[in-house]
Design brief:
two-stranded antiparallel sheet, about 40% helix, alpha/beta, Helicase, Ruva Protein, domain 3, 8 helices, 5-stranded mixed β-sheet, 2 domains, Dna Topoisomerase Vi A Subunit, Chain: A, domain 2
């Protein structure tokens, strides 16, 4: 792809690094910014810079937050006796969009994947165990809402063993999500039904 300016080429290269954006889409975005008032580009750059500098993560569940606790953990109307364990932040958004879950979350920050060099110590597993052990809220159930992949199942199995001493109800979302699929890409109806029809984890393994 030929560019009329190195500045445009550099901007396209940077924007095309974002997931799901190819160079053609990146070029359209760059040209759109050039057509608009300079304040639009400055506002975009400022918001991204502020995001990176000021974003926080919830001290309890590791969700994105504006303060020490996220909006979900600080909401007294949520059921804090149930914790839904997810791989990463997009999964929280996906489940919230179903409108079928009203408990709290715990974001692992990934899943166990030896081939990628990701082990249990690289994830937010110890904080989950500490959260259950300290029992700020008496925990009644842990929902393992992990993608039904080999890595997701490995992570679920590891978590079950770590939480076994606490005599908790441990469930997993129903297999309405296709085997090998990613949770964040499931449609809202399928994902919502999977939460509602969750099953006892031990009975499945």
């Amino acid at each position: 792809m030929q560019f009329p300016s190195r500045l445009i080429e550099h901007a396209v290269e940077e924007i095309s690094k974002l997931p799901g954006i190819g160079k053609k889409t990146a070029l359209r975005l760059v040209l759109h910014l050039l057509k608009n008032d300079v304040s639009v580009s400055e506002s975009l750059a400022s918001s991204i810079s502020s995001l990176r500098k000021n974003i926080k993560y919830c001290q309890r569940c590791h969700n994105i937050s504006d303060g020490p606790l996220c909006a979900i953990c600080s909401n007294p109307r949520r059921s804090h006796n149930i914790i839904c364990v997810v791989e990463d932040l997009p999964d929280v958004l996906a489940i919230e969009n179903t409108g079928q879950y009203h408990g709290s979350y715990h974001v692992l920050g990934g899943i166990i994947s030896p081939i990628d060099g990701v082990g249990p110590d690289d994830l937010n597993i110890s904080s989950l165990v500490n959260r259950v052990a300290q029992a700020e809220f008496p925990i009644e159930e842990i929902i393992l809402a992990l993608s039904p992949t080999m890595e997701g199942d490995t992570t679920a199995f590891y978590l079950t063993k770590k939480l076994q001493p606490y005599n908790l109800k441990i469930s997993s979302i129903a297999r309405g999500v296709p085997i090998g699929g990613e949770l964040e890409y499931a449609d809202e109806i399928t994902l919502g039904n999977s939460i509602l029809r969750r099953r006892n984890y031990e009975s499945e393994h």
